[in-house]
Specification:
The protein is mainly α. It is 70% helix and 0% strand. It has one domain. Helix 1 (21-49) packs antiparallel against helix 4 and helix 5 packs across helix 6 (200-217).
Length: 245
């Protein structure tokens, strides 16, 4: 009698050091759970304190905690999967020039978007809903709240969001579909995550440039730096404008 042939695997096994599809699903579920949980906690805080949640150090701290929590989700999933830091791209960049290209590219994309809106307005198209932006409410903000918000914008968001959207989502999309589709889909998810129609189109471009920088540099530190520089410049400009006003 002949031995039965070995059963074929249901699909190609991801190479060692890569995510699996269920990691992506679990990460998305944890993200949604984090958003729901934070919303419930803030609503409970508002009910107890009588705050309208328009500001305050508690809300600023919750924002920072949420951003860092995105990174914690990825770290936890990586530990569960047995991935190392370098498997996520937490290594010294092989090349630094993508940092400058991506950073300047973001501003070029935003300028092009504003010019497109101006052209639409010139022919009578209503674009107010597409140009509201994603600015923080900094009027009257100072002290501890401003410090925590600054940490969230300049450090928390770049670290947490780059780990989640580039280290997890883009890396898995790239494995499944290739570089170009991976960049496109992860950029769209990144833009949708901000829940603001006014920044949907430009943030797709921003997300695509950050994913490209990750791919071109072979390091997560480059998109983290680009993200931090862009957020920091925007934060400083808004502070300056609010101070001048």
């Amino acid at each position: 009698m002949f031995a039965d042939p070995p059963l074929e695997a249901a699909g190609p096994e991801p190479p060692r050091g890569e995510w699996r599809a269920n990691d992506l699903l679990l990460g998305a579920a944890l993200l949604v759970a984090s958003i729901v949980g934070l919303s419930i906690l803030l609503a409970a805080y508002a009910a107890v304190s009588g705050s309208d949640l328009e500001g305050g150090v508690v809300v600023a701290a919750a924002t920072l905690g949420f951003e860092l929590g995105l990174g914690a989700i990825v770290v936890g999933l990586a530990w569960r999967r047995g991935l190392r830091a370098r498997d996520l791209g937490v290594v010294r960049p092989r090349r630094w020039w993508p940092l400058g290209v991506a950073w300047l590219g973001i501003y070029a994309a935003l300028i092009a978007y504003q010019l497109a809106l101006m052209a639409l307005e010139a022919v009578g198209v209503e674009t107010s809903g597409l140009s509201d932006g994603n600015a923080l409410a900094l009027d009257g903000v100072g002290g501890a709240e401003l410090t925590v918000l600054g940490l969230s914008v300049v450090a928390g968001a770049p670290l947490g969001e780059e780990l989640f959207f580039r280290g997890l989502l883009y890396r898995e999309f790239r494995r499944l579909w290739g570089v170009a589709p991976g960049i496109a889909v992860s950029a769209a998810v990144f833009a949708a995550f901000h829940l603001d129609v006014g920044v949907l189109v430009p943030f797709v471009m921003v997300g695509a440039l950050l994913a490209w920088a990750y791919e071109a540099s072979e390091s997560l530190w480059v998109p983290v730096a680009v993200h931090g520089l862009f957020n920091g410049a925007s934060f400083a400009l808004q502070l300056a404008l609010d101070g001048a006003g």
